[in-house]
Amino acid sequence: MNRKLLRSVREYKKESIMTPILVIFEVFMEVLIPLLMAQIIDVGIANGDMGYILRIGVLLVVMAIVSLFFGAMAGRTGAIASSGYAKNLRHDIFYKIQEFSFKNIDHFSTSSLVTRLTTDITNIQMAYMMTIRMLVRAPIMIVLSLIMTLTINADIALMLLITVPILGGALIFIAKKAHPHFIQVFDEYDVLNNTVQENVNAARVVKAYVRAEYENQKFHKISGIVYKLFTTAEKIVAWNNPVMMFTMYLVVLCMVYIGGQSIVFGTMETGELTSVIVYAIQILSSLMIVSFVFVLIMIAQASTDRITEVMDEVPEMSDKEDAKTEVKNGDIDFENVDFSYAGEGGNLSLKNVNLHIKSGQMIGVIGGTGSAKSTLVQLIPRLYDVTKGTVKVGDVDVRDYKLESLRDQVSVVLQKNVLFTGSIYDNIRWGDENATDEEVQRVCKLAQADSFIQEFPDKYDTMIVEGGNNVSGGQKQRLCIARALLKKPKVLILDDSTSAVDTKTDAMIRKAFREEIPDTTKIIIAQRISSVEDADMIIVMENGEINGVGTSEELLKNNAIYREIYESQIKGGGEDE
Fold first, then answer.
1. Pick from 416, 339, 415: which is nearest to 380 by CA?
2. Considering the entire predicted model, what is its pTM?
3. Residues 6+ apart with CB under 8 A from 197
4. Are 372 and 544 in contact (CB under 8 A)?
């Protein structure tokens, strides 16, 4: 087990320690039982002493009950320890992911993180439980049984001593052959989960394009790969039982032969032979358990490596000890900013950006697809860090703020609008969990969402289903804008967040912004000229660079890109009537 991950045991250390102790007592009782059985046969039955048989029989039953008690307690504490460990590990990974920046999250796919939080942790949980129980039980059982056999018949003990490493080596060899196939399974699990997630999320698109058959084939293909890998691994592991049983029966035959001769020559009693056979079965069964646990541990090792990869991921962003917690105003400054998603030395998505935005201004950002409009605004709330240069909010470098404080004052409505399962009230209160009903309704009116909410039977108590699939794209956008407004931010960024609403509603939203939040800096990324035409300043982006800055009138005179977009939409009738 990885030491770093074992830190997650925490409050379950007591159960983790008690489990092997209880297992030791359980094994000790089990090892004594065959010895008492031998006494019943060799003394009680041989002499016809019923009193002796009853006394030893009662003692045998008591020891079996005690062994059962220790075994049940070990099972209970083992289950608590392993389940608690898995719970803590899942908690630690989930909280670790919350610290990730967008760049960190880009290292892992969503389906891969889900697999690590579910299947991988389940594998580790099972391996941990088997380690503190079976991996403690089996070696102790083997050693004590060998000792007891040695006290009865040295020849049989020697035979077992030779058999144990040979059989153990064979079982370990089988486990190692299966291990690579189990490792491959987890990578394919990520692909399988991604296929399922993608299909479910895009169910409407799949049906609209009648692509169900194609999706079924895609799922069948990856499912077949997982099946093939598991089948290959299980075919190898399946050799465990035949090898085990063959060895067991061979050993028993040899023991009967050696024991039979010893009984004939009077050096061994019948009851002793019986107990030795039981000890041999206990030893060989323990070896089988060791092999089984070994396979589980190897599977868990692959899962451990994947989880450790997440835990070792260093969050790209962290708060300084003297981080500032107050954003003075909505002034925004870009000073010689370069940015690359790949970091230093990578292809630049933004190049030498210089901008100065005053608090309270309404800023429009326009440009072609791939011109880095979204990248530009994502640097303001520090969703990514600049590769070179400085981004300031309120005259302070964004890297000098406490992340939580900065993002509380810089609200972003991203391109992909996300709503969560719950009521409309619940979703809007993501902006401020303590907001009153009146405050929620006020921001919904500003975002032009109140009108359609009032049409729902349950109004603001209407439940949003998973992904917000029971509201339209435009409605979802307005709810997300309302949620951002509830934070009462110094800076409000709309990343193409009114694309699904009509131009009239878009204009009403901008009008509400000007009248109701005049001191908030408003940055609107849009594809439509009408969404930014009345902005105090419009930024034209092209290939990661600022191609032009000015009002609509100024840009029409001196910026070819803006003029081309304007003419194609306004004169070409591209705008909604």
1. 339
2. 0.69
3. 110, 111, 114
4. yes
